[in-house]
Structures are given as structure tokens and as C-alpha cells.
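Per your request, structure below.
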């Protein structure tokens, strides 16, 4: 009797308070997933993207959230373990009930989770440059396709302004992004009349740290008469020993310029950049770009890093291209949810078409109406002594992505839009 009386009293109190049940309370937030490596070889690049998502969520929540509800991040660490990415993605969607996920860096991690997002019909926002050759209804690609980074970078190095390179070293980490990008670049170089003997291709495993013999090999290759350039698709913490060895062996940009596609301000943080002056990176954003939107973005990140006591960022808060692509992705997702008046996957996909956002680069980024890729401007920057980049070349305006490269013969006739499932 006492137990029954107590339950009735609790029920009455809950009814009077208007808070009928815990499930109703749980519906007061919208959960989003954050799927980035916070440990292992890729943590050097991905940890800051996790923090960028959390910063954007704080900003959105401070302005009232989305559809009148606060966003609740669910952060997981796949630990640079590619099969674990798929397991964590399934957990986020099925158990944690997130409505969208922001994450992945390497293409092998994206390939790992892709079947999960398609099977469970959930959304992934992927913020890093990649090799193309993929289109999914369930993915929005806010990083660059090859024609928005790799091809323009090589064209620049072939030009008079870029040093008129005639020989090429394609150096990458051994996985799908470097190998596919280099397949595209080989075909592109051959279309420009570059002979097979003038292309050297080398790969190292994730986490590789001894670049002494490879850089000696590059020096020998470059001494054989023609101007040589290195295209680097090395990913993760291997970039630190690579650039240190470049400095150790005195391979200067004036002799053999290196253009990197996965090295930005964050990866150069732990490197003495004085010997690396003049080497290049190709991105769609650099921290050094001067405009009011970027000034505001840098200040926002600096204030957030100090407030949260982020390791390494309290005194030297750096921004980079994948951070910008992450920020654009979550802000566009917010706009699409508000346009759709729903977090339903298919309604948000429809509302994402044609979304625009003024990016920190100063460019109005647009999500293509069909191919789930952003229209992006391309910048090439030279490493400065302070680890920042001086922009030496840029496209006249935003470039539309080509997910299916025209330099791969089997792509002929492929449609530039995702298959609806």
C-alpha cells in the first residue's frame, strides 16, 4: 500500500510539473555524431576537427540551437583503426540515435563506414580532400576533389611561375587516396607529354618514420638533368619525420619543390619550418588569407581554444583547410535542417542542394545541386619561416568538383550525381 501511495504521489507531482516522462525530456536535444581519430597515427590531424565540430555546436546552441532544440554531440574515438570506424559509425546511428555524423579523414576510414551509412540511411559529412571516384546519396563531401586540388597544383608546378617542372616524384602513404590520386596524376602527366621514365612513384605505410633513404633516392632522381618536383600525399604523423629529413638533407624548394595535399598549419606545428621555406601546399583555405570573415573565424577558434584549454592551441591557435570544411559542413547541415523543418535524412538531402555559406576563405561556398560536393576556390601557398603559408596562386573563382575524373578512361559516361537508393 505504501509503495502504491508513493508511486501515485510521484505521478501527481510529475503531472503537475508538466514533465511527464524521461523520453519526452530526451527529445529536447538533437544528437549528432563526431567520428574522428583522437589516438593513433591520424590523431595529429583529426583531433582538431573534433574540436571544430564542438566549437560550431557551442556557437549554434548559443544562438538557440536547431528547430528550437540544442545540439548534443556524441564523440567517439575510432583510434586510427579502419574497421573500428565502421563499428563506431553503427553505434552512433543505431544506439546513440544521431541524425548526422561529422567525421573521417582518410579515405580508408570513409570507405569503411560508407556501407553502414547507406544501409542505415544516415548522413556523413566528410571534410577532407580525397581521390574522388565515389558518390553516395548519404555523404556530403566538403573537402576537395582532385580537380580542386591535385590537378591545379601540378599545373602550377608545370607553369613558368611554378618552376617549369619536367620530372615528377609521386610520394604517398600506402592506401586508397594516394594511390588513386597518383593514378589520376599519372594519366594527367602523360596527357601533357611526360614520359614514363620521368615519373617516380613511392609509398610508405601509415606511421612510417624513416625517410632517409627515400629522400636520398629523390635527390638522385632529381640530379638527372630535368627540373623535378615532388607531389606528397603522405598522411598523418609521418609528415613530421618526412619534413625533418627534407631539412636534414638540405633539399630546398629552389632545387626540388614539394607540394603537399595533406599538410597544413597543424601538421607543421612540431616542425622547424625555416629549412622548408618555399615548399608548397595546395588547399582551398589557409589561415593567412586576409578578409573579415577569416579574421572572425580565427578569433572564434582562438577564444574557444583558450576557454577550453586545448593542448597546443591555448598560446598558438592554428586554423587549417579541413577545419574550414568541417565548419562549413555543420553550418550548411543546420541551414538544410531548418529549410526542411526536419532532421529526416531524405528531407535534409533534398534541402542541402544549392545551400550556400560564406566561408572563412572569403568565398561563398555552394553545395552543388546534384553531386554532393562543394564548389571551391583553389589556393597554393608557400611555407613561411613561421609555419604559415604565403598564397602564391589562386583560381579566379570557385571550381565545380569532378567526382569522376576525366583522366580515368573507365569513367566515361558516368553520371555526376549520386544513385538514389
Amino acid at each position: 500500500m505504501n509503495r502504491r501511495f508513493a508511486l501515485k504521489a510521484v505521478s501527481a507531482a510529475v503531472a503537475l510539473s508538466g514533465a511527464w516522462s524521461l523520453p519526452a525530456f530526451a527529445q529536447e536535444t538533437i544528437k549528432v555524431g563526431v567520428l574522428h581519430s583522437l589516438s593513433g597515427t591520424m590523431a595529429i590531424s583529426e583531433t582538431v576537427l573534433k574540436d571544430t565540430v564542438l566549437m560550431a555546436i557551442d556557437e549554434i546552441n548559443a544562438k538557440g540551437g536547431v528547430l528550437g532544440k540544442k545540439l548534443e554531440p556524441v564523440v567517439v574515438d575510432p583510434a586510427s583503426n579502419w574497421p573500428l570506424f565502421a563499428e563506431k559509425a553503427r553505434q552512433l546511428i543505431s544506439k546513440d540515435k544521431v541524425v548526422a555524423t561529422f567525421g573521417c579523414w582518410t579515405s580508408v576510414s570513409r570507405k569503411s563506414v560508407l556501407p553502414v551509412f547507406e544501409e542505415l540511411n544516415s548522413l556523413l559529412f566528410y571534410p577532407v580532400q580525397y581521390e574522388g571516384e565515389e558518390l553516395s546519396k548519404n555523404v556530403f563531401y566538403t573537402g576537395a576533389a582532385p580537380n580542386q586540388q591535385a590537378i591545379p597544383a601540378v599545373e602550377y608546378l608545370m607553369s613558368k611561375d611554378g618552376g617549369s617542372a619536367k620530372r615528377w616524384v609521386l610520394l604517398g602513404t600506402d592506401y586508397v587516396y594516394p594511390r588513386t590520386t597518383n593514378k589520376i596524376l599519372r594519366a594527367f602527366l602523360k596527357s601533357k607529354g611526360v614520359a614514363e621514365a620521368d615519373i617516380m612513384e613511392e609509398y610508405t605505410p601509415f606511421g612510417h618514420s624513416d625517410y632517409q633513404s627515400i629522400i636520398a633516392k629523390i635527390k638522385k632522381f632529381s640530379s638527372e638533368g630535368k627540373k623535378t618536383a615532388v607531389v606528397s600525399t603522405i598522411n598523418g604523423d609521418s609528415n613530421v619525420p618526412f619534413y625533418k629529413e627534407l631539412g636534414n638533407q638540405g633539399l630546398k624548394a629552389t632545387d626540388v619543390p614539394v607540394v603537399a595535399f595533406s599538410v597544413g598549419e597543424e601538421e607543421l606545428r612540431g616542425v622547424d619550418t625555416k629549412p622548408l621555406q618555399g615548399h608548397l601546399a595546395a588547399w582551398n583555405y589557409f589561415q593567412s588569407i586576409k578578409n573579415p570573415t577569416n579574421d572572425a573565424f580565427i578569433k572564434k577558434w582562438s577564444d574557444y581554444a583558450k576557454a577550453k584549454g586545448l593542448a597546443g592551441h591555448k598560446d598558438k591557435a592554428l586554423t587549417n583547410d579541413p577545419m574550414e570544411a568541417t565548419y562549413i559542413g555543420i553550418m550548411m547541415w543546420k541551414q538544410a535542417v531548418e529549410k526542411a523543418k526536419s532532421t529526416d535524412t531524405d528531407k535534409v538531402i533534398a534541402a542541402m542542394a544549392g545551400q550556400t555559406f560564406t566561408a572563412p576563405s572569403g568565398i561563398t561556398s555552394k553545395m552543388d545541386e546534384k553531386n554532393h560536393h562543394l564548389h571551391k576556390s583553389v589556393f597554393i601557398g608557400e611555407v613561411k619561416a613561421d609555419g604559415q603559408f604565403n598564397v602564391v596562386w589562386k583560381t579566379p573563382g570557385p571550381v565545380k568538383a569532378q567526382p569522376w575524373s576525366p583522366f580515368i578512361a573507365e569513367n566515361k559516361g558516368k553520371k555526376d550525381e549520386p544513385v538514389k537508393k
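The chain is about 40% helix and 15% strand.

Regards,
D.
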